[in-house]
Design a protein that fits this description.
It is a single chain. The chain has nine helices and 14 strands. It is α/β, with parallel strands linked by helices. Helix 4 runs parallel beside helix 5, helix 5 runs antiparallel to helix 9 and helix 7 packs across helix 9. The chain is globular. It starts with 5 loop residues before the first strand and ends in an 8-residue tail after the last helix.
Length: 332
């Protein structure tokens, strides 16, 4: 596979599936060979839109298509375990949209299944593959701000979303936490790892979905993270990392930044700007390229988005839900 194109299958035909497929068809080393949906009509329409050869009206057919090197699972969270599981059982490599699953139990099952099959598996946490986010991580790891004391991050959408919307539907994993809160939580994990203590509070909808959630994480090192997500108020999507020797501010869109500023004691502020060659800021190509690199190399996970990190994030999301009283119907 080192010389040929990586052949992709796309499972689902919604907005994020379309955005990712649009990136894939522009990558010279990628080829989208098949798409699947719950209905053949939806799959065919998607295939015609992107010039894809095969369109399947069921997931099993895609999972068992031996011409596919990697399947991208882009269903709502509640279907990730089933869809990714089908593909892994069939021996496919899989990229699964975030949040990875509904809960850590499902995530653990997928990771174990991938290990049993020897298949590549990765959460589509594109933030971790963003060049500027990776630069923030490198600076923090190199001690640019000293010992990390505080991480702050928020992600909120103004809405309003009606009760029928998937973001308000507990059966689909609806609520702010899994759709939006996964970004601030993953950002804190990227810099500090899994928290040692978790506190959280939320405002719930009549359906039982979290409309907005605030969480306070702490680590035995003395570090804290203050995180917020919302589907009832548009936030600045900013983030900051404060350490004993300085601070990094990401003024907006922290999960796909155009720039950030490093403040170090005794020095002038230093601005880091997205290289135009790496843009635009909302590109998903870095994630796609990392998957293809790893698959070509015969790796079963990405060092940028390690599976243990994904499992740790899912454990944290479970803990937050426990504290705010959110439980999905599938969990009994």
């Amino acid at each position: 596979m080192t010389e040929q194109k990586v052949r992709w299958g796309v499972l689902a035909t919604g907005g994020i599936a379309a955005a990712f497929t649009a990136e894939l068809v522009d990558l010279p080393d990628a080829e989208v060979v098949a798409v699947a949906s719950r209905t053949e009509a939806s799959a065919k329409a998607f295939a015609e839109r992107f010039g894809i050869e095969r369109a399947y009206g069921d997931w099993d057919a895609l999972a068992n298509d031996a011409d596919i090197d990697v399947v991208y699972v882009a269903t709502p969270h509640a279907a990730h375990r089933t869809a990714a599981g089908l593909c892994l059982e069939a021996g496919r490599n899989v990229l699964v949209e975030k949040a990875f699953t509904l809960n850590s139990r499902e995530a653990t099952e997928l990771v174990a299944l991938a290990a049993d099959r020897g298949s590549f598996l990765m959460e589509a946490m594109w933030m971790y593959c963003n060049p500027l986010v990776r630069r923030v991580k490198a600076l923090v790891d190199d001690g640019a701000v000293g010992e990390v004391r505080t991480v702050q991050a928020d992600f909120g959408l103004a809405g309003p979303f009606p009760p029928s919307h998937r973001l308000r539907d507990p059966a689909q994993g609806g609520g702010a936490l899994l759709d939006l809160g996964v970004y601030p939580v993953s950002f804190a994990h990227l810099l500090l790892g899994e928290p040692d203590d978790i506190k959280a509070s939320a405002v719930l909808s009549p359906e039982g979905a979290d409309l907005q959630t605030a969480a306070l994480f702490s680590w035995d090192s003395g570090a804290l993270a203050a995180l917020h997500c919302s589907i009832v108020g548009g936030t600045g999507t900013s983030a900051s990392v404060t350490g004993s020797l300085g601070r990094i501010d990401i003024p907006d869109g922290f999960f796909h930044p155009e720039r950030f500023v490093l403040h170090r004691d005794g020095r002038d502020p230093e601005e880091f700007v997205l290289d135009p060659a790496d843009g635009p800021r909302n590109t998903l190509r870095h994630e796609a390229s990392e998957v293809m690199r790893a698959v070509r190399a015969g790796e079963t996970e990405s060092p940028w988005v390690p599976l243990e990190g994904t499992l740790a994030v899912m454990r944290t999301l479970d803990a937050v839900r426990e504290r705010i009283g959110v439980r999905y119907p599938q969990e009994g």
